[in-house]
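Troubleshooting entry. The earlier prediction with zinc ion gave an output that would not parse, so I re-checked the input for stray whitespace and re-submitted. Clean input:
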Amino acid sequence: MHTRFHENTIGQLVRLRKQLHQHAEPSGSEVQTAKLLTEYLEGLNPHTINNGIGGNGVAAVFDSKIEGPCVLFRADMDALPIEEENDFEYRSLSPGVSHKCGHDGHMTILLGFGQWLSHNPPKKGKVILVFQPEEETGQGAEKVLQDAFFNDHKPDFVFALHNLPGYEKNAVILRQGPFAAASKGMIISLKGRSSHAAHPEQGNSPVKMMTKLIEQLLELPLQKDIYQDFALLTIIHARLGEPAFGTNPGRAQVMATLRTYLDKDIEILTNKACQLAESLSGEFELEHKISFTEVFPATINHPDAFALVKEAAVNARLQLIKVEEPFRWSEDFGHFTSRYKGVLFGIGAGKNHPGLHNPDYDFPDEIISSGITMFINIYQQLQTTH
Ligand SMILES: [Zn+2]
Ligand SMILES: [Zn+2]
């Protein structure tokens, strides 16, 4: 079994990719994008098109109405708050916002797969194409999965891909088990008492605790024996008082990103960081408040789904790269893989391609065909074996 996507339709898909690129919208505002997707999907005659899933999400269902596997494929929809440096004719029309993670390409691949499905509808079971908003902030996947849509649709398998600069174009990058890290943003706010800068003894500045906290937070990942695998903590922002030379500050804030390959380990790291903030604020007699944002679970590739993707790459005669280490970045597809058997895999975007989130990045259209071919091959195996 060896299926390649029909090359004639690629030109049409490239034009569509550029259209999506022009109408880049940030996380949570993917309105125009959803409209473009829906218009295109209507032409593919799926059984149903569901709008407004978990915000601006769109799901198309190709249903055979005969018992069989329920397979979900997902693409992300959002762009980033990054001003585009490129000056090609399809550059982003939205000031300060552009597709710098290639989600325009991921959506195009999924639509291309939808086009194939419209000619090759499932003989049993159903296929769900999910276009998911708000990936970059880590909120979209969870919102989509909470939607009532999933009361009626229980996927047996879930799949998604991400383009990866730094790897040869069209190579399939794969790993069993953890693929992308768990991560979360931690915000620690400290409150003491401000006073005149001439009389610091009358106030309680958080300055000493803040410096101690930063130093000791950075040491937490170094306690290797308490984690099962990789752990990392990066201080990303810190703030003390105001730039007012007459005032001894009363407030401070420290922000850090926590990262691990395993969900268990991020819990351990989180607890350690909370305990540290707790004990230091006791020592310095300060109030403290902790909150979290942009929480991503680890993306874990299931062995059964992994085997399907590996086989698909072989069938499609694409170069297969098995990575030793999971990636340190996070993907909110982890919410899908924590519920259903699934895989997130990479498609090489070119060894010297600008990195994701760089202002000169643009999705390489040459990999659209491989992405579609991978989805087709994964799906065909499920049609014959399950
Ligand atoms: Zn991104
Ligand atoms: Zn992305």
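This one parsed fine. The chain is about 30% helix and 25% strand.
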